[in-house]
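Readers outside the structure-tokenisation community will struggle with the description of the input data as it stands. What matters is that the chain and its backbone geometry are given together, residue for residue. For illustration, here is how one protein appears when written out as sequence plus structure tokens:

…
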Amino acid sequence: MSGPAQGSRGPRTLAVDLHVHTDASYDCEMSVEAVLARAAAVGLDAVAITDHDSVGSLPRAFDIAHEYGVRVVPGVEVSTADGHLLALGVDDPPTTGRPLPETARAVRESGGLAVVPHPFQTFRHGASRRAIRDVDAVEVYNAHTLTGFRNGQARRYARRRGFPGTGGSDAHRPALVGQAYTTVSVEADGGVTTDAILEGIRAGRTVARGTRTTARQYLRKYALNARLKTASFL
């Protein structure tokens, strides 16, 4: 997915799935190995592991990423008082339950990137318009959608407000890793680094790409969520 080849002049475009879960999330059973294997198979340059309020999978991911030739961007999907927030480039999970703008500022002050995932989708803990402040970017393509209506809404909102748009699969199963992703333009001689990726997003050098999940994939994901949530209360 990336290009031009290393060593060429001009910017290089990286393919990065910025929203992926592992078994460190309460609603996912996917291993780090499965994430990285699938990311390599579909040609991703990097993947952001963004578990729910946890960075438990990051040490393992960092240890083995070189075996797959895929860069791991550290992250977490934070539960704020106003909905979910992707904190990219952070090694420690931010405090949960705070207002989204306050959480976003804390992420930015720590050198991370604050991205609003699946905005306006309240049943998925998506933030409302009034809560989207002090953030760096908006996820305008989330693969876990049936109609694409909310993605279009997010894209128009980001364009009007001048936010960079990102794409992420929100994968909870291996087959969905890379189903949505972000192309990020970085300097050709900069390598595939977290800093280069985050800087490219901040600068708005992004394009969100992907395909929606099928009805079968959609229902399968929610069936898994229901089973795991029920198990967590037993």
